[in-house]
């Protein structure tokens, strides 16, 4: 299971303090760095902003998936952020973002990165996934919900 490995409980931020995209990137990169201290935070921020300048990663129904491939990274790491108030994100639908899945991968691991994005996109298609995710009250509940959702796709 892919998402279980990328989004551990310790990188789930239940109540984001960010209200804008730039703050959000810094907050989630810091969260990832706390759990995986070996990657370069500034490099991650630069690559995330460069990727975002090409096209927004605010994709659908209050969800954003900022992602980047960086030279100093081996493997992939991620964080999930939840904002009940919403974040001004310049999304495709112009609506605020409430759920953010940030993924940082190694620049030579494109295939794995695509696999993660594909699995996440599949989970997001589960009816009421985002609505149910937003109703959860702890990082453990969110982690278990994502793991169970991913597992249900395999059965």
Notes on the protein architecture:
The protein is built from 6 helices and 6 strands. By secondary structure, it is α/β, with parallel strands linked by helices. The chain has helices at 2-6, 21-35, 41-54, 110-124, 129-134, 139-154, and strands at 12-13, 58-60, 63-64, 67-70, 76-87, 97-106.
Helix residue percentage: 40-55%
Question: What kind of sheet is the major sheet?
Answer: 6 strands, mixed
Total beta-strand segments: 6
How far the N terminus sits from the C terminus, by CA atoms, comes to: 12 Å
Question: What is the ordering of alpha helices and beta strands?
Answer: HEHHEEEEEHHH
Radius of gyration: 14 Å
The fraction of residues in strands falls at 15-25%
List low-confidence stretches.
none
Shape: globular
Secondary structural class: alpha/beta
* Overall pLDDT metric: 92
What can be said about this structure in brief?
With 155 residues, the chain is of the alpha/beta class.
Compile the SSE list and pairings:
Elements: H1 2-6, E1 12-13, H2 21-35, H3 41-54, E2 58-60, E3 63-64, E4 67-70, E5 76-87, E6 97-106, H4 110-124, H5 129-134, H6 139-154
Parallel strand pairs: 1-5, 3-6, 4-6
Antiparallel strand pairs: 2-3, 5-6
Entry keywords:
6 strands; 6 helices; alpha/beta; six-stranded mixed β-sheet
